[in-house]
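Subject: complex prediction, re-run

Hi both,

The earlier run crashed halfway through, so I resubmitted it with identical inputs.
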Amino acid sequence: MAKDRASHQRIRKTPEERRREILDASIRLIGEYGFNGISLKDVADEVGMSQPGLLHYVGTKEGLLSMLVTDVYDMSGTPGDFLASGVPGSDPEAPHFPAYLRFLVRHNASRPALMQLYVVLQSEAVAPNHPLHDYFQARPEQVWNFYSEYPWVLPEEIGGWENMRSLVRMSIEAMDGIQLRVLREPHIDLYEEWLAFEKLLFPSPLWDEYR
Amino acid sequence: MAKDRASHQRIRKTPEERRREILDASIRLIGEYGFNGISLKDVADEVGMSQPGLLHYVGTKEGLLSMLVTDVYDMSGTPGDFLASGVPGSDPEAPHFPAYLRFLVRHNASRPALMQLYVVLQSEAVAPNHPLHDYFQARPEQVWNFYSEYPWVLPEEIGGWENMRSLVRMSIEAMDGIQLRVLREPHIDLYEEWLAFEKLLFPSPLWDEYR
DNA sequence: GTCTATACAAAGATAGAC
DNA sequence: GTCTATCTTTGTATAGAC
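This time it finished cleanly. Structure:
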């Protein structure tokens, strides 16, 4: 297995593996205690290395956060993933927006640690001096622009994607509220709870062919 | 102005006044930076006293938080306040639940610092070692029990208060999501946004006489 | 790339004077 | 009731050996 290359070297963990370990540990710990609630030593212990050893990878504590956001956050659960998924409503030529939201909720439900990280950081970043403040501040508009690039098929009565702003906003608000609740009461099923909101936000018969 | 009583004493700030100052400063600072995001010195500076001076009042850092929760949180915006408010739907003999939720949203909108405190603490307390973890964990059930004591009048089709569980839960979820959004985009009107959700959660014609 | 040792600052809390 | 001084711990970060 491509082992002969540089065979005089001892096998050891590659930087990529370390990076991955650091990311996973950070997701768990920050998701649980918040960025303000953890220390670099906590993460280092979790990964099994010294605190200066960790700093070698992330530079500073903020660097750890940047790494997390850039490499993990915006990399999954996108409309692009949805169109490639082949689930009902994901026809790349005529995708259904409610179907994407269901996809997104399922995606989040399948990665609870990442979801928790998101919820916790989002609230923590309300503080104007938080390293992610600007990121989350700009996010709603960025997400809207991002979504706007896809050819969603909508009921004619809506009158075009431009009129979806408040519905998109309310959908995000509902999701955030649900996620916060599920964090405290894990017995609540995230997907079921979202379906209840979907029924209200995208009602029959208006959305029957477009959900 | 009642100055003659104990006129031989110099006028100075009473403990009550100090308490009030400490509470106000804490609401602002913790709401903005989170409990993990502030130090006792931050609060002390804000109030204009030394850090040990502050500790004289609150005992420990956690004591500050307890003081906040006990004295401020659960003391306002209750159904009791609602019934005494005289607004439409607040007849103590036959109160309307959606009317109470509107009352609650208006109340929150009128005290943005307190609302922000609530949102930030709620997420921070996801951490199992957070001093308010248990408090927020138990809260949904407590709120439900608290609400259950009032004789809300509901559409007959609902079939009784017991069937309101999911609707109450979804209402709270929506509110939490809205509040989080408004914190980042203050131009959004909290009350207007809630009315949009109310229309979905308590639709016509079912709720027309009970809203 | 990973460690030990260490510098430096900040935070919570206590002692004791006034 | 409020302060100064101080103790102790913890946290970020750097220096330098291996």
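Residues 39-41, 51-52, 55, 60-61 of chain A lie near DNA strand D (CB under 10 Å from a C1').

- K.
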